[in-house]
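Researcher: Please predict.
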Amino acid sequence: MSNRHIIETDLNSARNELSGTDSIDNDIMFWDNMSTVRHPVEPMRMAFIMVSLCTNGTASFTVDADEYAIGRNDTVLIPEGHVIDNYSSSPDFCGLTMMMSTSFFYETMRNVSDVSSMMLFSRLHPVVSLSQREADIYTSYFRLLKAKTADTANRYRRNVVQALIQALFYDFGDTVFRVRGNEGWQPRANAIFTDFIRQVELHFRSERRVSWYAGQLCISPKYLADTIKSASGRTPNEWIDKYVTMEIKLMLRNSTKSIKEIASEMNFPNQSFFGKYFKEHAGMSPSEYRKSVCRRSE
């Protein structure tokens, strides 16, 4: 198999790879020159939040192992920690992109109502199709934000950019309501779900116990289970297993580490237990999965 490795990428490395960007420190960056993009040949795990709007053409990519395709007026919101791979685009593809560090995003959004619900929605539905009116509004936001970010003479530059981002996400929240409707909208449950997912993303390689995550959130395991099921339609165990299985697949696909090494890195007690776990959730053994990936790439 080819020796592809998952590249950990942050805003600084992204800025070095792209031309025509405007940024504030390592907190936020805007970019609109798709003609200069060099298609990544390795999977990339993003250490930032990315928001993009397709203005022309088409593109396709995977987020972890899920495939997505976008076209004109589709917006993409991908939280930090996810792996982007298999990117391709049409020759006429154009788009607008905003990248934010996680700390900057939550600092900016700390007083915005329903931000946890919006991030929950994006984790389940990273691609949203906009009306032409919505696309025009978001394009205006992007252009203004990019211009304000570039205005280094403005002593309140950072504050102005944060205020505009808040306004943008209030409008995005309205779009989310349009797409999914009010039914099932549970701010408290969604906030707990978002906190739970953030903990899972940080600790799934070493912790797979629901009780441990409940303790981190200072709630009972039963309340956590009921809340996560209500908010997302999946149990906490299903979400933990999803992250663990996805990471194992990425490691089997993109590294030459032995199965024993992967089992150890993922904190399984032994290779036998690791194999049984993976087969239960992926439908085949780790070696069978690695062989199937190699055959598809030949």
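Model: The first strand starts at residue 7 and ends at 9.
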